[in-house]
Amino acid sequence: MTTVLIMKLDLESKPREIDVACTGIDRINFITLPEVNIGTEVISPTNALKLFIESHRPQIKDTVSKLMSQSQSESRLAGFVIDMLCTSMIDVANELGVPTYVYFASNARFLELLFHLQILHDEHNKDCTNVYDSDVGLVLPSFTNPLPASALPSMFLDKGCTTTFINHARRFRETKGILVNTFMELEANALHSLSNGETPPVYPIGPLLNITRNQNHEGSDSTFKWLDDQPSLSVVFLCFGSMGSFDKDQVKEIANALEYSGIRFLWSLREPPAKGKFAYPREYADYKEVLPEGFLDRTTGIGKVMGWAPQAAILAHPAIGGFVSHCGWNSMH
């Protein structure tokens, strides 16, 4: 039996959720933990997420302890599998005397990069935020050429965010293994590099995809009807992940590019949260408040703007011929 503990963010706007009661898997037990209000208005997103996770440590220990006391005598706690951002739960597993494995939802090359940055920081006293604008290249075993520091993900510009990920990488080394959402044929070089014995064993278990055909697309019926009327492979789909949003100037630039190109498009457009607040993007009450004047009228017939989008289902539609993405790993899969 596998028990999945779910921590739910107490935010004003939330992404669509899977109905765990309808998964149909008897051997998986889902437990949703009580929500914890962390007051996200006064702290950075990085610190908010860290506080959110660590505030659940007592709940998780108590929940697991109660489950074990109520279970049958032949059942035992075998170990923890934790999310890549939940490394503080390693301490809970240690207190309960069981091993920990990490589920790394991103790719193997990013995992290799995190380990490399952690080594640079801990053993060579180098901070990647200080070399971001330099021409110095990072030499990674699985890369044919040095990686320019300027090509690092933008989050590594932020010292606090960089420190958080380096701390995660350091704690990954304490675990018994790392389960990565990838497969050998896609990232052979990175996976071979990570099998040098300097890190815990890495297990490629991907790609993990939700390809259920009978998903609930409530609110998206008009979108699929519109797609049904478009020629095969003619529509470019723009979608930027559950946290993806743009300010008004960026939205107008994207809108102008779409209009001038004359291509058919489907655009998942969502409103950013209030400045300085850790929250998911919201649905616009009226797209006209952010789009160029007359844009919706001028693109009627060749384009459609929507809010939250069932990404996998839309990508599977025969009318989709291109994808503009934030390049999140799940989206790339």
List the helices and strands and how they pair.
Blueprint: E1 2-6, E2 28-32, H1 45-54, H2 57-70, E3 80-83, H3 89-96, E4 100-104, H4 108-124, E5 137-138, E6 147-148, H5 159-172, E7 177-180, H6 188-193, E8 202-204, H7 221-228, E9 235-239, H8 248-261, E10 264-268, H9 295-298, E11 303-306, H10 311-315, E12 320-325, H11 329-332
Parallel strand pairs: 1-2, 3-4, 4-7, 7-8, 9-10, 9-12, 10-11
Antiparallel strand pairs: 5-6
Helix pairs in contact: 2-3, 4-5
Describe the overall structure.
- By secondary structure, the protein is α/β, with parallel strands linked by helices.
- It is built from eleven helices and twelve strands.
- It has a four-stranded parallel sheet. It has a four-stranded parallel sheet with strand order 11-10-9-12.
- Helix 2 (57-70) runs parallel beside helix 3.
- It is globular.
- The model has no long low-confidence stretch (mean pLDDT 86).
Order of helices and strands: EEHHEHEHEEHEHEHEHEHEHEH
Our measurement of the CA-to-CA distance between the termini, rounded to an integer number of angstroms, reads 28 Å
The average pLDDT value, as a whole number, equals 86
Oligomeric state, counting identical vs distinct chains: single chain
Tell me the strand order in the biggest sheet. 3-4-7-8
Strand content: 15-25%
* Largest sheet: number of strands, sense, barrel closure: 4 strands, parallel
Total helices: the number is: 11
Low-confidence stretches: none
